[in-house]
Hints:
With about 250 residues, chain A is mainly α. Chain A contains 12 helices and no strands. Chain B is built from 11 helices and 13 strands. In chain B, the strands form 3 sheets. Chain B has a 6-stranded mixed sheet with strand order 5-6-7-3-8-9, sandwiched between helices. A 4-stranded antiparallel sheet of chain B has the order 11-12-10-13, covered by helices on one side. At the A-B interface, α1 and α6 of A face α2 and α3 of B.
Amino acid sequence: MRNYLSAECFKAFHRRYFYTALAVCLVLEGVLLWGYWLTLNWGNPDVNFSFAATTLSFLLSVGLYATLITGDIVFSDQHRNNTLKNEVSYGLPRVRIYLGKLAVSILAALIAAAVMMGFYLAGCWLLFPHDAQDAQGWALVGYCLAGALPLWLAAQAVVIACYFLVRSATLAAFLAVGILGVVPSVLQVLGLLFHPAFELLRQFTPSVMLDSLRNMAFDGSYLGLCWISGLVWFAAATALGLFLFRRKEIR
Amino acid sequence: MAEPVLTARGLTKRYGGVMAADHIDLNIEKGQIYGLVGRNGAGKTTIIRMITAQSTPTEGELALFGAHTPRDLARMRARTGAMVETPSFYPYLTARQNLEYYRIQRGIPGRGAVDEALEAAGLTGTGRKVFKNFSLGMKQRLGLALALVNRPDLLILDEPINGLDPEGIVEFRNLLLDLNRERQTTILISSHILSELANLATCYGFIDHGVMLEQITAQRLEEKCRACLELHVDDASRAALALEQRLGAMDYEVLNASVIRLYSHLEEPAAVTRALVEAGVGLSAVESRGANLEDYFLGLIGGVHHA
């Protein structure tokens, strides 16, 4: 497994895709920081470190959909390039192939998240005034990130399962967005029309939980629910993806 | 006794109602170059895809180097190198980067393995050119380099000379012969270009419509295809005696009680006929026979109209 992970890292970090995507995200963050900095200079007294930093709590869903990019960086159009056959014909177990790519996509996502968070928070720290609310801001950011982490992992597992099982990367991405973004809306409608159980299920979907995190700030039990729900999604998506991939014809 | 490298028993692949491979038996021994012969769509790639784990057999058993459990088969596949259909690599990586990726993934020690494989495949001067800009021939060579990077004991090649220029085909053939001779590499090679296989194979498997029609050694095939006069007589033993005594012919084969193949005196059918008639042998037919690999294959599948 160690060789497989090393090879996947070699491939993922030897192409410009990862760095380009990261650079684009950093530029967007820079624009956001610049915008806050302008309003501060125009005399808006509400702009300070705490205000700017806690903006992160509104952007948690971006991380959910960013897993499409980190999944794509690692999966690298294996179906279109027909490269999976080189791996299975050498006798590499399909479990190792699946889990290896999932692990490296998580690694890429964590590195990207750390760089982006670090850049944004460092920018906030350097550009904006500090006051007594700083500690509160740090705590809110910490709480949101702690709750978002398992939900992002769940999203990454869903994305990787889609990439493995659907030949077209575009269709796979649409399917993943459908599962992560559209299913909650469908459950909401079903809840209204048929049974409240659907609404209850909706509350445990990653996108809804991410949206609720900010409002549930500092509620330890909700944090626990995020972890349980995230890990259940992660395990279910991985088990289903693995089950189907082991039976899939490689072309 | 020769060491079995690849054995298949009743290997079958069914796609819905279509039988792509129908109870295939294969037996490849160490040091053989096994030519899998069949026209396009005959089932060659289906068999190779099952051998290389890209496809799961519907029925049947497969053994590689004597191992047949799924876990052991996976382990033994690490002793193989395969090139199945079009070579496939990451388009944004160079030849060296692509091979380096697979070298790391497979745990092959030393970067020298990549250089050695690139050199063997004649692909040393590609520099920073990425795979997507390669010509078909270069892609084919990189596919071969990947198949060689782990110094395999069994090389599995599916239509490997597609896209190679004439010079490349000769180099490729010589490389395979060298590998077979120097490293005792066993080779399974499929092709519908029979003239190429005729220069390489030591054993043939003829396949059509997913059915293995015949497996035969190159030596036996040569014997069967050898030019001869086929004599249909009433008593083969008396005819043999007459050929020896009257013509001094020793190079013949008695196929059954009424058929003899004579490999000498090919230009003298009249003399042969006279000798047999004078010896009182009843002669019903004299046929001039002989075939090459293509004729033999076409004969097996029922003629050119079926091919």
